[in-house]
TrEMBL record:
Component of the mitochondrial ribosome (mitoribosome), a dedicated translation machinery responsible for the synthesis of mitochondrial genome-encoded proteins, including at least some of the essential transmembrane subunits of the mitochondrial respiratory chain. The mitoribosomes are attached to the mitochondrial inner membrane and translation products are cotranslationally integrated into the membrane. GO terms for biological process: translation. InterPro entries: Ribosomal_Su5_D2-typ_SF, Ribosomal_uS5, Ribosomal_uS5_C, Ribosomal_uS5_N, Ribsml_uS5_D2-typ_fold_subgr. GO terms for cellular component: mitochondrial small ribosomal subunit. Keywords: Mitochondrion, Ribonucleoprotein, Ribosomal protein. Residues 100-134 are annotated as: Disordered. Residues 153-216 form the S5 DRBM domain. It is found in: Mitochondrion. PANTHER family: MITOCHONDRIAL RIBOSOMAL PROTEIN S5 (PTHR48277:SF1). This is Small ribosomal subunit protein uS5m. GO terms for molecular function: RNA binding; structural constituent of ribosome. Belongs to the universal ribosomal protein uS5 family. It comes from the Eukaryota.
Length: 317
């Protein structure tokens, strides 16, 4: 007995359409313009639909296919309602002989004349220069030093690291900068600042170093008067005077301080802790707090030659 052909009812046609090749092909045709313009490679006929649909369903599908043209989906696209939508249905893919014609007076070079690129002034850079000039004027007014002198100062950033401030709202990360400034002729200053911006912290520390400029006493404009020992926290710094030609033999931080202060002969020893910030602060404090032979002679009630022990033109060393 032959197996009867399974006939699907019209009630299940909607579900059946979603699982066949025909609805998927139709969906692609309706949603993609590129597929609409392509020729049909496999036309849909009654013979191809016979194994899947009833005769009534096949007739309905073929009638719908004949009624719908291939260019109909182009008119089914949703129209934009925003301010940038086109108020007409012109096909912009085609060249209009009137609207797209080359205007008279334009050379036929194959390129449209381009508009000149607007040139905008870099106001931010100019504003920064003006701020620097105004800040230098303010520093000159506060310190009483001339502007050319402030511009010729030697500035070195010795310590830069990240710090964090814990608050009830969370952690606030900042950049810490310690800077020294000097003229190379007996003036030295130290400044420190912290800010959320590294550039701003560097600039503020430079301003603080310039404000804190202090004179130091130098022997023969090259070394210090005797040995000086200073304790800053857990750091102990010992500075020792040396004869001419000895050079500066010490750590990198003290070396930079000596260059900014104008000291060419010095020996230094850092004992116990070697924290960079405390080493720098202790060195600057030792240079500014050293006692001169005149002050020692006045304190002892002696003459300066007795304090220096230099008689008849004999050198100190």
């Amino acid at each position: 007995m032959p197996t009867p052909t399974r006939v699907r009812s019209l009630t299940g046609s909607l579900v059946f359409h979603m699982n066949t090749y025909l609805p998927r092909l139709r969906k692609q045709h309706l949603s993609t313009t590129a597929l609409l313009l392509k020729p049909e490679t496999k036309p849909i006929t009654r013979e191809t639909l016979q194994p899947f649909y009833q005769q009534e369903q096949i007739s309905a599908l073929l009638d719908v296919e004949n009624d719908i043209s291939r260019t109909a989906p182009l008119r089914w696209k949703p129209r934009r309602r925003d301010s940038f939508s086109l108020p007409y249905f012109t096909d912009l893919s085609r060249v209009d002989p009137f609207l797209d014609s080359t205007p008279s007076g334009v050379p036929k070079s194959g390129r449209w004349p381009s508009q000149p690129v607007p040139k905008m002034e870099d106001t931010q850079f100019q504003q920064g220069e003006e701020d620097d000039e105004n800040k230098i004027k303010d520093l000159s007014r506060l310190t009483g030093l001339p502007i050319p002198y402030l511009q010729s100062l030697k500035i070195r950033e010795l310590v830069t690291h990240r710090v964090t401030n814990q608050t009830r709202l969370g952690k606030i990360a900042k950049q810490y900068v310690l800077t020294i400034a000097g003229d190379g002729n007996g003036m030295i200053g130290i400044g420190e600042a912290s800010s959320t911006s590294g550039e701003l912290a560097s600039r503020l520390s430079q301003y603080q170093a310039i404000k804190n400029l202090r004179p130091i006493v130098r022997y023969e404009d090259r070394t210090i008067h005797g040995n000086v020992k200073v304790k800053m926290g857990a750091v102990e710094v010992l500075l020792m005077s040396r004869p001419p030609g000895f050079g500066v033999r010490c750590s990198q931080y003290i070396f930079e301080i000596c260059r900014c202060a104008g000291i060419s002969d010095l020996a230094a020893r850092v004992e116990r802790s070697r924290n960079p910030m405390n080493v720098i602060k202790a060195t600057v404090q030792a240079l500014t707090a050293q006692k001169t032979p005149d002050a020692i002679a006045k304190g002892r009630g002696k003459k300066i030659v007795d304090v220096r022990k230099a008689y008849y033109g004999r050198g100190v060393y």
